User: Fold Ferritin from Pelobium manganitolerans.
Amino acid sequence: MKRISDQMEDLLNRQMTREAYQAQVYLAYGAWAEANSFPGIATFLYGHMQEEREHMFKILKYILDRGGEVKVEALNAAPACPTNIGDCLQHILQHEIENSKQIDKIVRLAHDESDWATFNFGQWFVQEQIEEETLINGVIDKYNLASTQIGGNHNLYEFDKDLASASQEATTARDETLE
Ligand code: FEO
Assistant:
């Protein structure tokens, strides 16, 4: 028996497709970074592509858990190649902010419908989006430092190496303690 509304089922399916699209964005930008001799940034972006696919799968499983029907649909084409690393990171941040707004729609509808199961499920994504926006903002800060100091090319080289082993998770306010 289905335990989500038709409207929620539709919204969750659209979000599943949206997460798959997010993965395409990271895939395309990762390939662009690799082609432009930034292997560390490419590794970081490919790693995040995997995270987005996990998000997609998490939503797929949730729809099935609630007795809904999964609809796997066509993806939009990935965006055009960025013009440089700064442009690449800004586009990624915009995609994440837009994705957060879509997650908010799920949580808002769940609240309006008193669908507390989906409301609870949505909270995981709310937290994940806080982390992702924080993570990308942090990478942008590092890029700005690396690209504005004297000897910019050398610093970009270090920035690229640094990102190859960078975590895919950010520490957010929820994780902080004063111990
Ligand atoms: Fe799954 Fe980066 O949003």
User: Anything to note?
Assistant: Residues 20 and 56 are 6 Å apart (CA to CA).
